[in-house]
Amino acid sequence: MQILQIYENASGKEVLLKAVATAIPAYNMSCFLLPKRVLNQMTKAMRKFWWSSAKDKQGIPWKVAHNSISTAENLHKRKMVADSTCQLCGEHQETTNHLIFQCRVNGSWTSPTNNAGIGWTLFNTDGRIILEGKAAIEPVNSPLDAEAEALRMAVVQMRKLGYHIVTFYGDSSEIYDTLSNSHQASPSSIKGNHCPTYMKDIVNLAKESNYCFGFQKVKRTCNGVADKLAKEGRITNSGYVVRWKNNV
Predict the structure, then answer these.
(1) In principle, which of 3, 28, 114, 242 could form an S-S bond with 133, CB 3.0–4.6 Å?
(2) Looking at the structure, do residues 123 and 224 belong to the same domain, yes or no?
(3) Is residue 108 one of the residues assigned to a domain?
(4) Cα angle 121-138-134, degrees, rounded to a multiple of 5
């Protein structure tokens, strides 16, 4: 782990984790079922490396907690920019939580008897896709159920990969507007929608104190990549595929 000390900036840490740290155990994992304890230790080491402070500098958690990241919102308050709107999505204010990582999510559904599909894409602070996932899932009752399951699976994956600050975006008002207002409340407060079980699962996954997950609705036209992945997953009857993009 001494090589990890070479990279003290965020971009260096990100590249090293994805290009080296996650690749080292790939061969062993293809041959053997590693004990859960070993996997937990690997995840803990990568999280500690990513979230630790650089020498003589405040780390990401401190900056997030003190809202000291130079977001458009903060720059606007200091009268350094005229507009606080995010240049990536063009819809919401560029707050700290909005800026860190954005995950676009969508579901694909045709009927209650056919497999549905889910798709999601994770964007970094430069607006580039760094990670994406897709899968076919068992038949569900409605398009709303497919959307909710897509979101639940995306939240689960972000937790597994150690992303603690993510804003999830989708084009379903019923899901994202409800979660935006309720995800910090008790799961029992989620009422009045057609997929309460999925929604309560999502709230339970997002409410832990070491995660900062947000939920916002976007226009359908802004969710094209995730929609394409969801359709691909459904049409090809794909297993759950998660892959890093080469433009990281």
Answers:
(1) 242
(2) yes
(3) yes
(4) 15
Q: Clarify whether residues 48 and 106 are in a common domain.
A: no
Clarify whether residues 113 and 45 are in a common domain: no
For residue 240, the one-letter residue type is: Y
Q: Which residues contact 102 (CB under 8 A, 6 or more apart)?
A: 88, 89, 122, 123, 166, 167, 169
* Shared domain check, 116 and 52: no
Please give the torsion angle defined by the CA atoms of residues 160, 162, 163 and 169, in that order, rounded to the nearest 10 degrees: 0
193-to-143, 168, 175 alpha-carbon distances in Å = 13, 19, 8
Domain that holds residue 28: 6-56
